[in-house]
Amino acid sequence: MKLSTRGRYALRAMIDLVQNQYNNLMPISLRDISKRQEISRQYLEQLFNKLKKADLVKSTRGAGGGYLLAKEANKINAGDIIRAVEGPIVLADCILTGRKIKKSTPKKCNKVEDCAIRVLLELITQKINQTLDTTSLQDLGRITQNIKKEQKDER
Amino acid sequence: MKLSTRGRYALRAMIDLVQNQYNNLMPISLRDISKRQEISRQYLEQLFNKLKKADLVKSTRGAGGGYLLAKEANKINAGDIIRAVEGPIVLADCILTGRKIKKSTPKKCNKVEDCAIRVLLELITQKINQTLDTTSLQDLGRITQNIKKEQKDER
DNA sequence: TAAATAATATAATTTTTCAGTAAAGTCAAA
DNA sequence: TTTGACTTTACTGAAAAATTATATTATTTA
């Protein structure tokens, strides 16, 4: 049970965007994010594709172009970001499809025991989404800011 | 973000154990569980190895042998079972190790942005464990029982 | 006590997913 | 018209997960 790097990288990139924006006026290029976050440009491209489709960022092309937040940082939450790049959070396939367990051997989930497990997993999924949806990008930005400050003060 | 089959199978096997026990007197063989749950015997062996080490089941060898619950079903919870076969629930490696992100390229998690993400993931992990630890095997057994009953009534 | 049963332990194999890379193309602004 | 940036698709290698295989040891029962 892990959050894949896709989700983590997307969060990181979005936090980077908030931190480096000047009132969301100057587009930020993937090249810059790539450098700061040490994530390959091509990989970022994949992620921002999805972030854009989910209306979380907007882009301007050409020289001096790049990405901007599509909404205010307090209107974007962690759940939006993660679901944009990873799809909906599903702890077991039968929850979404209702049935299938595997792709290769599309066996039905016909064990009643599974249904009890499904009840449990659905409950957990709810809790996860609840937490993700009550944490805004602004929150994440502030936390980051505070950590940076602390690190500075220590020196 | 998925619960692996290991965890799901272990839950299923344990529910099977509760459902088919006669006051926990007659050991249940993996062969029977394997048949009922359609999980290969060898795979079950791996799982029960860990369940035993975690003191959730006890075993007797030889003919007529098999597994029994090591404690009462209301003293065993879903979290015990899942953690027994999957290890602790960790949504990102840096949470456990404090630092490392990957094994192969042991790069440090030196981005402050990650720390904000860690705060979020730790919160979620707490919630997950909370839910898992408040759902007993007895609960799961009852839910299963109810579902079986409903299915019967429908006919 | 031999045969059958069932757990224990480890190793090997297969399958699937993930992470990252590459390439070729499109579009917009300076 | 050229640069810089976004778009899209395909591919590859590595790691993790799932499954299978092979012995071995311990009990019971006929």
From TrEMBL, chains A, B:
Keywords: DNA-binding. Gene3D superfamilies: Winged helix-like DNA-binding domain superfamily/Winged helix DNA-binding domain (1.10.10.10). GO terms for molecular function: DNA binding; DNA-binding transcription factor activity. The keyword Magnesium does not apply. Coiled coil: none annotated. Signal peptide: none annotated. GO terms for cellular component: cytosol. SUPFAM superfamilies: Winged helix' DNA-binding domain (SSF46785). It comes from the Bacteria. NCBIfam families: rrf2_super (TIGR00738). This is AsnC family transcriptional regulator. It comes from Candidatus Infernicultor aquiphilus. The lineage of its organism: Bacteria, Pseudomonadati, Atribacterota, Candidatus Phoenicimicrobiia, Candidatus Pheonicimicrobiales.
